[in-house]
Amino acid sequence: MGEQTQVQAPTQQQQQDQPQTHTQTQTQNQPLHESPSTTTTTTASINATTIAPTSDSPTELSNAPAQSSSPPSKIPFRPRKIRKLSPDNSSDPKSSSSQIVVVPENPKPTKSKIVQQRAAVTLPKIAARSLSCEGEVEIALRHLRNADPLLAPLIDIHQPPTFDSFHTPFLALTKSILYQQLAYKAGTSIYTRFISLCGSEAGVVPETVLALTPQQLRQIGVSGRKASYLHDLARKYQNGILSDSAIVNMDDKSLFTMLTMVNGIGSWSVHMFMIFSLHRPDVLPVNDLGVRKGVQLLYNLEELPRPSQMDQLCDKWRPYRSVAAWYMWRFAEAKGAPSSAAAVAAGASLQQQQQQQGEPQHPQQPQLMDPLNILNIGLKTGS
After folding, report:
1. How many CB atoms are closer than 10 A to CB 41?
2. Coiled coil where (predicted)?
């Protein structure tokens, strides 16, 4: 009973000694390696009651938390952000460890991580082959029917496109330059005389073209500007900047960059060359007015889509945008819009062009083409 009375009514000296005795009792049950006095100091700084240090307190360890005279509520202690590394102290949440690491509390996934997670579950992309490969056009038409049901009626009405022209890249690029800004008949006439000047189509090589003087080219109807374009293309071949094998093996982006370095070859000419000469399956001529007009009619748009809008509008056609673009030309022609004669400039077969009834003259095309990039097809647009 005497013991109970002392606990219920402690003297002033016992009140001063009681926090230290209570803390030391807790310390005896803790499997820490520090001394009891160090633990007392560390625990006291975390407990709700702050005890002022006495003059005879032992020197604190350098890794012990510093004491603060501020109220406990202002102590920047975040237990949820501290993970204790000591295996001995993992069972006691009140024990203080000398090694701590701050970890984020309930980290939320960022937007980029969410996009990556969604991308991880998307279906694999179709690996499209050259459109001249056997059966590839049929695969393309099947894909376009499923990807865009609005294309199905156009696919049913028109015969499937054929990609059967096989010229060397140098010959095809030369032909593209010669046909620029010309009607089909005029371009064919000049091209025929150019072939005779070179000896044959097989004779159209960089060395032969460089040997032709501007006067010789003017005599067959080639302007001085186009003559400089032909010579610039031939020089880049002769210097090793371009070659037939490199062009065939380049990816679309690199090829576009390299070919637009040639004077007289802009984005429109490159797109036509990639579709009709290299038979690349996923080329979208965003600057071609015939394709843009077809997209406007297909989706019933109030205005002609800008080149910057074409990628988003036609994204569902990947990876066969070249085939879909071919149907946009046919659709625009069926609605009375002039043909861009894209296939002629890029070396499409003569049979395809003869099947087009009453093809308009090329000088009329700027009325429907993007004035920023297509008005001067013979000039390097750089876009």
Report:
1. 23
2. none
Domain membership flag for residue 369: no
Rounded to whole angstroms, the Cα distance separating 191 from 188 reads 5
Return the number of other C-beta atoms located less than 10 Å from residue 197's C-beta. 17
- Structural contact between residues 96 and 108, judged by C-beta atoms closer than 8 angstroms: no
d(CA 103, CA 342): 61
Is 345 part of any domain?
no
Classify 39 as helix, strand or coil.
helix
How much is the average pLDDT of 36-53? Answer: 43
Q: What is the pLDDT of residue 110?
A: 54
Q: Residue 342 — φ and ψ, nearest 5°? A: -60, -40
Question: pTM, whole model, 2 decimals?
Answer: 0.60
Q: Give the range of the structural domain holding residue 301, as residue numbers without chain letter.
A: 128-163+279-340
Q: What is the pLDDT of residues 148-157, one digit of tens each?
A: 999 999 999 9
Q: Is the pLDDT of residue 251 over 60?
A: yes
Q: Which of 207, 236, 215 is nearest to 380 (CA)?
A: 236
SS3 82: strand
CATH code, domain carrying 288: 1.10.1670.40
What percentage of residues in the chain have a pLDDT greater than 70? 55
Query: What is the rounded distance in angstroms from the CA atom of residue 19 to the CA atom of residue 1?
Result: 23
Specify whether the backbone of 358 is left (phi greater than 0), alpha (psi in -120 to 50) or beta: left
Please state, rounded to an integer, the average pLDDT across all residues of the chain: 72
In a domain? residue 92: no
